[in-house]
């Protein structure tokens, strides 16, 4: 880690169309605002170039994907260089004909790609038909080296898996980042909505606790209609946040508005916490064989 304090920004946005260039420029305006406030590293939400297209299965949607490098990486790479900022983007990658990924791309104050991560855990649930679109990642859980440290970038559904966070931390991640697109089915009761959001927040704060690292989460916000007749669509719940290495909430956005957050993260606390709570020292790696199995004995 090169810095004791890092100013981290995140963007929580509503996406109203699939006009990529328009959406990129809207993101760019928010990025420039955060940079003016001193942000050194900025996280964008999952699949921020378009609306969340996985509410149905439609082969024409593959037209939204693009290669990496490609137009999106050209745009955001130039922006990272212009703003002298570490930038974490989330793109629909066309790797080859018939082969697509949900991919996060990181730029380190340059238009060159510093690294990328392909989403490993792919959901397939009503309204979230991602297995139709995305091949599971094959780059493993490798942090990306940048000028502010090693960034453990994971994507949305990955956030429910302690194994993913642990492996990123074991490989040296200084901070965990989760670009996200999650929301409510409007048919759920208010109590059920609260339980879902509470579980989502708790599991990610637990990753911070269990690995003694900060966690940064950027979720989209607003309602996006479903193309399926009589389907209620998704009300994305925002609630983006930054947590410290003991799971303490350092900043949190609301549930229903576009927002940007900027947080001064004290990275010296990670070392302090790890000395007092040495989880990695006490792990019983001799007794964890079943973790590589689908289920127990």
TrEMBL record:
<keyword id="KW-0378">Hydrolase</keyword>
<dbReference type="InterPro" id="IPR003010">
    <property type="entry name" value="C-N_Hydrolase"/>
</dbReference>
<protein>
    <submittedName>
        <fullName>Beta-ureidopropionase</fullName>
    </submittedName>
</protein>
<dbReference type="GO" id="GO:0050126">
    <property type="term" value="F:N-carbamoylputrescine amidase activity"/>
</dbReference>
<feature type="domain" description="CN hydrolase">
    <location>
        <begin position="6"/>
        <end position="267"/>
    </location>
</feature>
<dbReference type="Pfam" id="PF00795">
    <property type="entry name" value="CN_hydrolase"/>
</dbReference>
<dbReference type="GO" id="GO:0033388">
    <property type="term" value="P:putrescine biosynthetic process from arginine"/>
</dbReference>
<dbReference type="InterPro" id="IPR036526">
    <property type="entry name" value="C-N_Hydrolase_sf"/>
</dbReference>
<dbReference type="InterPro" id="IPR050345">
    <property type="entry name" value="Aliph_Amidase/BUP"/>
</dbReference>
């Amino acid at each position: 880690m090169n810095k004791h304090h890092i100013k981290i920004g995140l963007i929580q946005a509503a996406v109203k169309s699939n006009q990529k260039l328009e959406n990129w420029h809207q993101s760019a305006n928010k990025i420039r605002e955060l940079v003016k406030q001193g942000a050194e590293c900025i996280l964008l939400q999952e699949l921020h170039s378009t609306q969340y297209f996985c509410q149905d299965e439609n082969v024409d949607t593959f037209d939204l994907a693009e290669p990496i490098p490609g137009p999106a990486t050209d745009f955001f790479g130039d922006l990272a260089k212009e703003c002298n900022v570490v930038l974490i983007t989330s793109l629909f990658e066309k790797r080859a004909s018939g082969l697509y990924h949900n991919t996060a791309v990181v730029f380190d104050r340059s238009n060159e790609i510093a690294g990328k991560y392909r989403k490993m855990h792919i959901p397939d649930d009503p309204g979230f038909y991602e297995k139709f679109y995305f091949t599971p990642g094959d780059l493993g859980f490798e942090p990306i080296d940048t000028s502010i440290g090693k960034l453990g970038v994971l994507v949305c559904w990955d956030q429910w898996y302690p194994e993913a966070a642990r492996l990123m931390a074991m490989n040296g991640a200084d901070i965990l980042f989760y670009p996200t697109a999650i929301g409510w089915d409007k048919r759920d009761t208010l109590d059920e909505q609260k339980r879902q959001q509470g579980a989502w927040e708790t599991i990610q704060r637990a990753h911070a606790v269990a690995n003694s690292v900060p966690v940064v989460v950027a979720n989209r916000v607003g309602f996006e209609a479903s193309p399926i007749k009589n389907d209620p669509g998704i009300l994305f719940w925002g609630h983006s946040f930054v947590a410290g290495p003991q799971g303490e909430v350092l900043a949190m956005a609301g549930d229903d508005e576009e927002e940007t957050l900027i947080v001064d993260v004290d990275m010296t606390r990670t070392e302090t916490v790890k000395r007092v709570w040495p989880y990695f020292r006490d792990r019983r790696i001799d007794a964890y064989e079943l973790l590589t199995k689908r289920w127990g004995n």
